[in-house]
Amino acid sequence: MSAARTGRRTMCCAVVLAAFSLLGACASKDVAGYGVGAQAERAAMAPQANRDPAPDTPGMYLGLIDQMQSQGLYFASLAHIDAYEKQYGVSPDTILLRADALRMTDQSDAATTAYGQLLKTPLAMRGYRGLGLISGAAGDFSHAAEELQQAAQLAPTDAVTLSDLGYARLRDGDVNGARVPLMKAAELDQNSPKIISNIVLYLLANGDLAQAQAVMNQQKFTPDVRAAIRSDAAKIAAAGRAQAHGSPTQPQQQFGQAGASTGTVASAQGIEPAPRLLQRFSQ
Predict the structure, then answer these.
(1) What phi and psi values does residue 138 have, to the nearest 5 degrees?
(2) How far is it, in rounded angstroms, from Cα 193 to Cα 124?
(3) Which of 97, 106, 192, 261 is least surrounded, with the fewest CB atoms within 10 Å of its CB?
(4) How many CB atoms lie within 10 A of CB 82?
(5) Considering only CA atoms, which of 26, 35, 99 is closest in space to residue 65?
């Protein structure tokens, strides 16, 4: 390894650690935030959300359905989408809400059909993103990357989509291809736990083990979270070896909701301004 590369890695580590130093206190709680606590919160909110909303306008009704989905009440939202469309008709907004609910209730075939209906509407970006998430959930990260790339082209400043694209490329073994969308995502949204976590995964996949370890220490990642990140990194390495030998990669562990443990860390409030951080990181 050249002295210049060593110097760059040392500088990167120092900057990343400094930028993340304010985040460690809440990291463990937020990284594992998809477990019992979130489910209990949703259950507590369910009685209120399940009440008959008697909305005054279509917009209010759509807002209530969206609120249900934000609380994880996807089955209830499907029932209300049926009621809405019976009263007001089908629109791209209801198709998207239905597609998201179908995906989140493990109805992948129906969700794929619904997302496909969006591709010739103003919500085409959301259609491609949904299709990418379905492919990723099935372990087909090559197709996931292609579909998320289409979504990113339609919405070049959508940080979440760029982060998902970077993650899909990582899991497909394309570590170099993941760098640019992840850097874009991190500069666009420095407050995203998922994006910060994906950068840590990129560090591991790129061989910057000391830097990744230092960041995980600063973030106070729990042993389970560290193990999940290393598991993803091992899958990335295996996918890279398969590509190098010209053999197709096998379907891998799904991402999105099921892979959330490797996609969430603490909120990045108080982080060093993102352009400075990432300019140094990417040198």
Answers:
(1) -85, 0
(2) 26
(3) 106
(4) 12
(5) 99
Contact 177, 144 (CB under 8 A): no
Q: How confident is the model at residue 55 (pLDDT cuts 50, 70, 90)?
A: low
Contact in structure between 162 and 249 (CB atoms under 8 Å):
no
Which residue in 196, 162, 198 sits closest to 274, CA to CA? 196
Contact 17, 218 (CB under 8 A): yes
Cβ contacts of 160 within 8 Å, gap of 6 or more: 185, 189, 192, 194
Alpha-carbon distance 259 to 256, whole Å? 5
The answer to whether the CB of 30 falls within 8 A of the CB of 265 is: yes
Q: Which domains does the chain have, with CATH numbers?
A: 24-36+55-281 (1.25.40.10)
pLDDT in tens, 226-279: 888 888 888 888 888 877 776 555 544 444 433 333 333 322 222 333 334 333
Tokens 């060093």 belong to which residue?
272
| HSE of 70, CA atoms in CB hemisphere, 13 A | 7
The whole-model pTM stands at 0.69
What's the alpha-carbon Rg for the chain, to the nearest Å? 20
Instruction: Give residue for tokens 């990723």.
Output: 136
Query: Which residues, including other chains, have CB under 8 Å from residue 130's CB and lie 6 or more apart?
Result: 96, 99, 100, 103, 111, 114, 115, 118
With a CB cutoff of 8 Å and minimum separation 6, the contacts of 188 are 157, 159, 162, 274
Measure Cα distances from 272 to 20, 22, 135, 214 in Å. Answer: 8, 10, 35, 17
| Dist CA 71 CA 160 (whole Å) | 19
